[in-house]
Input
Amino acid sequence: MITRTRIKICGITREQDVAAVAGNGADALGLVFYEKSPRHVGIQQAAQLARTVPPFLTVVGLFVNPSVDYVREVLAKVPLDVLQFHGEEESGFCRQFGKPYLKAIRVKPGVDLVECAARYAGAQGLLLDAFVEGTQGGTGESFDWSLIPQDLPLPVILSGGLHAGNVAEAIRRVRSYAVDVSSGVESAKGIKDAAKIAAFIKEVKNVDIQLSR
Output
């Protein structure tokens, strides 16, 4: 039984936000390599941010339908630990870079998550986000958590519309391996709020203590 929910703060764009994530005890941070996102970082900016990450904090690179060459260019210059694919990438594409990967699935009624887990069996986990037409995540929208089967064979990273006010209930209901937050800890798009990060992580830790009793 999982007694600690892992925490990823996604969409980091500033060094002070790296410090807030690390200082409050998150497990991972996400850098967005998708130009249409307001949280997009260029390769040089991402490399600088990565240099400020302390040991044992996982750096995740988020991509949406990238070219092979672009992923390889990023990996040559930015020390990513994990790749996160948020588009329509197939499993063979995701596996070819020699890095652990997460596959994001935008959840709506009719999406077979058991089939998705089988199709991406080589993934470290499935990141489950809200389906919003025309967007690829970071929408601040949640989805119906009851659509998540209890018997998924891959770890679940729960995303989509999470914030300090609802993350405890989300963990109670889903019992996901991890939670992923972006807009829910921001003061503006791409600008993280250190107090909101602290409050979010505190809520996660508190509910974990309650559930472990």
Q: What stands out?
A: The longest strand covers residues 101-107.
